[in-house]
Structures are given as C-alpha cells and as structure tokens.
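Structure ticket #2291
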Amino acid sequence: MDDFRAFDVGAAEAFDDVVQAVAERQGCGADGGGGKARCGSGAGQKRLAPEIWEKVKTHPCYSEEAHHHYARMHVAVAPACNIQCNYCNRKYDCANESRPGVVSEKLNPEQAAQKVLAVASAIPQMTVLGVAGPGDPLANPAKTFKTFELVAKAAPDIKLCLSTNGLALPDYIDVIKTFNVDHVTITINMIDPEVGAQIYPWIFWKHKRVAGKEAAKILSERQLQGLEMLTERGVLCKVNSVMIPGVNDEHLVEVNKAVKSRGAFLHNIMPLISAPEHGTAYGRNGQRAPSAHELKALQDRCEGEMTMMRHCRQCRADAVGLLGEDRSGEFTIQKIMAMDVSYDIKQRRAYQNKLEQQRLANIAAKNIAAKHAELETLAGEATDVRILVAVATKGGGRINEHFGHAKEFQIYELGARGAKFVGHRRVDHYCQGGYGEEGSLDTIIGAINDCAAVFVAKIGHCPRDSLIAAGIEPVERYAFEFIEQSAILYFKDYLDRLKRGEVAPAARGDARIRQGAFVSA
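Resolution: structure written out below.
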C-alpha cells in the first residue's frame, strides 16, 4: 500500500506497566541517590523493567553499555526532506565526511534489504537497522516502510529504528507501531519559535513552503505532539538536540524539560558541526561549534532533569559498524552483489550470547573493583574530588588501542561513586605510516587537556614525554583490561597520591586544570 496512514493497528496494542508510567508524563530521570529508578543510556538491567531492558540491552544508541559491544547500520533510502536546517547540507557520493546527511550511495528498499543481510551476516554483533536519511524517513514514507517490511521478513531478529525531524510524525504513529519500530529518534532543537526561526529557514507543510516563526511554530507543535503520541503507545523515544552557541544553547535547558514531561526516554545534546568546507549555512556564516567543555557543562545541567546520551557519534546516513567506526566502504552495492550471503540467525544469536558474557564479565569486574577500592572511605574528606581521564579503545569495553592509532578518546569522569562515561573526543591519528605526526600530537593534547590521565594499550616515548609535560599522565598498566574496572583502581591510587601530596590539587571549581586535574563539586 502506498498510503501507510491507512493501516489499522486496533486492539493489537498492549502497553507494559513501565512504558505506561513513562507516558503518564513521568519521563526518565537521573538517579539522584535516593533510590529512584533511572532510565537511559547508562542504566543497567537492575534499574529497568524487563520489557524495557529487552529493548535497549543490545541497542548501541539507547544503551551506553551496549555501544561497547553491539553495532548498528543505517540504510540511505530516504533522500527527500521536508524542512531546511541551517546546520545541514546533504551530500551524495561522499566518502570523506562523517556527519549526518552524508552518504556514498542511495539505495532502493530491495537493495537496502540485501545490504542488511550482507552486513548482519558479516558483522553478527549488528543488532539494529536505522533509517536516518540522508533526508527525512517520513518525507519518504513508501521507501522507508517498504525497507522495514523487507528486513522484518528476512531478518526478524534485527531491531528497527528511524530518526525524524518530526514534522510528519503525527501522521505515521500507527504505521510505526504496525511495523514494530520500537525506537524513534526525534530531532528537537527548540520549543520557542523565536529561536526556531534562527535554525530553520523554511518547512514544506501542506503543499507549500512556510518560513520564519510560523514555520518554527508548526514544526515545534508537530514534534511535541508526535513525541507524546509515541510514548503513549509504548515506543521508546530519544530526542536529539544540536547545541548551537548563541542560538539555542541556553534554550536547550527548557527543551530538556519539555521532552522529559512528554515521556522521552533519553536526551542527546550534540555539538554543532559547522566546518566551512561542509557547505552548510552556519558553516558559511562563521557560526562556531561548541567546545567539548561547553557541551559537557550543558549536558551536566540537563542531567538533573533526565538521563543524557553522551556516546553519540553523529553518524552518517549510511553508517555501518560499532559507534565510532565506519565500515560502509566494505559493503557497497557492487561488493554486496558479489557476496554469497547466508543469513544464519542461530549463529548470530550464539555470537551475541558470547557478547553478553563479556558484558557480564565487565559488570562483575567493575563491581569487584569498586568494592575493593572502597572509594567513599578512601576519599575521606576529598569525597568531592572528581577527575577526567581519556581512554583509547577499539570497543568491547577494554583499553585496547595504541595511542598513535586512536581516532577518538572516550572520556570518563572518576569520583567517589566510581567511573562514569561522559563523552568522546575525536582526534587525528598520531601515527602516520609508522611515524609520529607532531602537528597531530598538539591537537590531541589540546583535545584532552582537561584530563588527568590517558589510558592506552601502548604509547611511544615521544608522545609519552609530551603528555607528561602537558600534565597528562600516560597509563599503560591496564592495557587490555576493562575500562571501568581499571578507571576505579586508578582513581583509588590517585586519591592515595593526593593524600601524600604527590598530586597537585586543582583550584576549586576549575574544570580545565591540566596537571593533577580534578573538579570540585
């Protein structure tokens, strides 16, 4: 059927108790230490109802823990868009940019389904298929839902997701439920049309182009209506917001409250990407992107209202693999047509069972380390001490990447409550053809200059000396161990050294001290 809005879900809807509670304007909040249930990317099995846990435990975008182990893929079947954003420029046949709206190949639904089978057979930890563009999935409903139909029939074990700007969302709520799409991401950058008019030049609404505050008002109303309708039907919703300094950065605190009150499961505040070479309106007019420090500060402010997603990589519309890696080049249409694809659900489940064992081992190691360290007692009068550390990792929750090969560092905040993932910092490779690139080293140090240490599997003498000179401790002794376990043990040692006066404490409230860096609460 071409008109997917004609589908009737009827009495087949069944709400579980927890999702109903979320839909009743409860939202999902952070654990403030009072024993309240916590939802979101960092929540573990014990903090979520079984129905919710099953939905998020292998979804790398909805679970920070899962993103260490499980992969996702996007298929580029939705080229058209119904709004214009000042931060967006859709590019085709482009392999050199890593940002939303960029693809190397546009696919039809049949090609997309074939690609899903090929990727899922080659990457058994791939658990999630998303349609995220390069335009808007709901501005291309026939292609989007035909893709879901084909994939659900051929690979019923794969979760289905879509990402939308929300303008058309209220018209397709029942269709989304019909196709068992139980994860939807909505990009909501404002709830005030005055702010929205600075972000969206126009929308295409009811067969005409609408501009200015009127366009922003229509868009915001439709976004919030769609969010409400989805959560009432038990669909998990993540809200993406682009942080644009001087435009909506302060306003996003109000957006956060609004989406929480309408049942959003998770809020992902992302930094604006505005390099001039990308050709966006913001890139052309010199609109700056936020710094890593500004982004974290805003995320911290909003986390009191609800749990924040901090592990987003702002993926391309044809992304393949773990978050932070791009294997789309291995699965072009030409290469897929030459593959002998045999989709084996049993083999995939066996592989994923091994991943679950690794996950449980990681959790157990973290718990043992926390108990052994007795952080609250060890901290004593310094219970408000917190430091940031950077981690070089290839995935799997382990410290398993060479410093010179790292394309990004994952950032953890360590304190008396343990280790908490708070973000990632993209960097240029230091090792180029076997040799260190000094220019890259300067930018790497600049990217992690608020960290007390960097955990690596291995590091050379030259970058080691430069890091030490910058007040960042290179740490190799936890190579190939679990990240959070190692971080907790490191923090125990850090506190001991702090007591002995071997680490220079930072000034209170200073979040950007290099040597002996820590943040006072």
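Closing remark: The radius of gyration is 23 Å.
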